[in-house]
Amino acid sequence: MHATLRTALNAAVRARLIPVNPANGAELPHPRRPHPVVWTAGRTARWQQAGERPAVAVWTEQQLATFLTGIAQDRRYAAWWLPALRGLRRGELAGLRWTDVDLQAAELTVTQQRVHADGQVVVGPPKSAASYRVVALDAETVLVLTRHRERQEDLRHGAATLALAARTDLKVVQAMLGHASIVLTADTYVSVLPEVAHEAALETARLVLKAASALGRPLGG
Questions:
Q1: Fewer CB near the last or first residue (10 Å), C or N of the chain?
Q2: What is the mean pLDDT of residues 214-220?
Q3: Per-residue pLDDT tens digits for 55-72
Q4: DSSP per-residue letters across the chain
Q5: pTM of the model
Q6: Where are the domains of the chain?
């Protein structure tokens, strides 16, 4: 807060709105950094009974393993795994994109964060210059992310095929998926669902029958 205020007042000095920056002479207290402690049975009991908790408390490996085992089927499992194993901040995790992840090289790059500000989600730079970093990934983390991406692609494909089954225009589906070419959309999805293929066959037959009827020569049994 002091740094923000001092910066604002420095701008006011440069604009000659005030002669000096009063924040420069402020004497700030020197708070002690909290010392991390482990969640023991006693600390857990005090927290549950009286709401008393340490400023910074960490899990043991057994406690973390218990937590991860309990949420193994959660669709956001990868979002729990990354901060637990690789230490990403919440905003960094929310801002992470697949373009920032290299599963072949087993690393990810923190380049942005997504945070709440004034009731809106804002995308911006990481917290500090040191927050721009490359994070190495172990084999298990690569596997977790690979499975998460595969589940996402299953949902993406499902959305596209269902849209086509609902007779959504192919150009609209292309825009929804962000495909550069409508040919890719058509080649990938048009014949995926059996309903789409059957509907196409039915529409073709209807077209021919209608033309025959207009000629006064109805077809069919």
A1: C
A2: 74
A3: 889 999 999 999 999 999
A4: -HHHHHHHHHHHHHTTSSSS-GGGGPPPP-PPPPPPEE--HHHHHHHHHH----SSEE--HHHHHHHHHHTTT-TTHHHHHHHHHH---HHHHHT--GGGEETTTTEEEE--EEEEETTEEEEE--SSGGG-EEEE--HHHHHHHHHHHHHHHHHHHHHHHHHHHTT--HHHHHHHHT-S-HHHHHHHHTTTSHHHHHHHHHHHHHHHHHHHHHTT-----
A5: 0.62
A6: 87-137, 148-214
